[in-house]
Structures are given as structure tokens and as C-alpha cells.
Design a protein that fits this description.
The chain has one domain (7-171). The chain has helices spanning 4-37, 40-65, 72-108, 113-145, 152-171, 182-187. By secondary structure, it is mostly helical.
Length: 191
């Protein structure tokens, strides 16, 4: 039988991997939304708005319920499984959203507030459920790992910082030489 420390270490490791997978999913969603809806800035802002709305909704929903859940690790594992299925389904669902958006765009004849609202609504339909589940993972993990109520603030801050560190590490991939980025030009010697 595993000790509590080893079990908690496995949970934190799973949370790290889940955070890295969430970052990959977010990048894929932004790129897919750009292909579906055109403008990178509009796709980025729409995906991020839905992403953070879903995280907040999930944290609120599961945060309130986590106190009544007897086995938060089981619910956490179930959330991760359902989340994986929804993330995998999201990319084909973007095809459906793109088709519907094309119909709305052609029917409107020109960009309008209705067309922009349709884009936001379609992205929300595809991404809201997985992002709600992403938002629910932290409260469940906190519920499992925090033993005493007076340690809640410290434990949650540590987990949140760990999650932010995960995103930072995952985003620090090496850029290919000559990629045209301004930092590449600065790092190469002048000729």
C-alpha cells in the first residue's frame, strides 16, 4: 500500500501532465479556430474568452461541490477521462462549427454583430464543456490534498503556482534557428 506522500506525489504529477495537455489543447483550439473563422486575433480572443469562462465556471461548480464529495480522487480521475474524450472530440466538432459559421456568414452577407456573436457561440459550444471540466480539476485536487482547513490558502497557492509553472515550462519550447522572430535576430552575430 502506498504512503500518503507517494499518493499525493502521483496526484501532483498527474496534475502537471494534465496542465501540459491542457496547454496543448488550448494551442490546438486557437489554431483550429483561426482556420475556421479567419482572423488570428479574433480566434485568439474568442478561444481565450471561452477558455477562461469555462475555467471559472468549472472552479465555481466543483469548488462548491467538492466539500460534499467523499472520494475526490475518483471524481478527479473521472473528470480527466471525460475531459480527454471531449478534447479529442473538439477538433472534429470545429468542422461542424465551421460549416455552421459559413452558413451564417453567407446568410448575413457581410460581417455584423450577429456574425461575431455566432462565432463566439459556436466556439463556446465546442469548448465550454471541456474547459468547465478543466476548471473543476483544481478544486477536486485541493480537496484531496488539503488535510486541515487552516492550510487551505497555502496548499491552494502552491497548487496554483505549480499549475502556472507547468504552463510556463510547456510554453518554453526552443524556437528553430532563423524563424524570423526578433529575438533570433538579436541572438545571431552581425555579418
Amino acid at each position: 500500500m502506498q504512503s500518503r506522500g507517494a499518493r499525493n506525489g502521483l496526484l501532483v504529477g498527474a496534475f502537471f501532465l494534465s496542465g501540459a495537455a491542457g496547454l496543448v489543447a488550448e494551442i490546438c483550439w486557437i489554431r483550429r479556430a483561426t482556420l475556421a473563422f479567419g482572423s488570428t486575433a479574433q480566434a485568439l480572443s474568442t478561444v481565450l474568452a471561452v477558455f477562461f469562462l469555462g475555467l471559472a465556471a468549472g472552479a465555481t461548480l466543483f469548488g462548491e461541490r467538492s466539500r460534499r464529495i467523499e472520494r475526490p480522487v475518483r471524481v478527479y480521475a473521472l473528470l480527466e477521462i471525460v475531459l480527454a474524450v471531449l478534447v479529442l472530440a473538439s477538433l472534429p466538432l470545429f468542422d461542424v462549427a465551421e460549416s455552421l459559421y459559413g452558413r451564417v456568414y453567407r446568410a448575413a452577407g457581410a460581417p455584423s454583430a450577429f456574425v461575431h456573436a455566432a462565432r463566439v457561440g459556436l466556439v463556446a459550444l465546442v469548448l465550454f464543456a471541456p474547459t468547465v471540466l478543466m476548471g473543476g480539476t483544481l478544486p477536486l485536487l485541493c480537496r484531496q490534498l488539503v488535510g486541515r482547513s487552516e492550510r487551505v490558502g497555502r496548499s491552494v497557492a502552491w497548487l496554483y503556482g505549480f499549475c502556472c509553472r507547468t504552463r510556463y515550462v510547456a510554453s518554453r519550447r526552443k524556437k528553430p534557428a532563423g524563424s524570423g522572430r526578433s529575438h533570433d535576430r538579436l541572438s545571431r552575430p552581425a555579418t
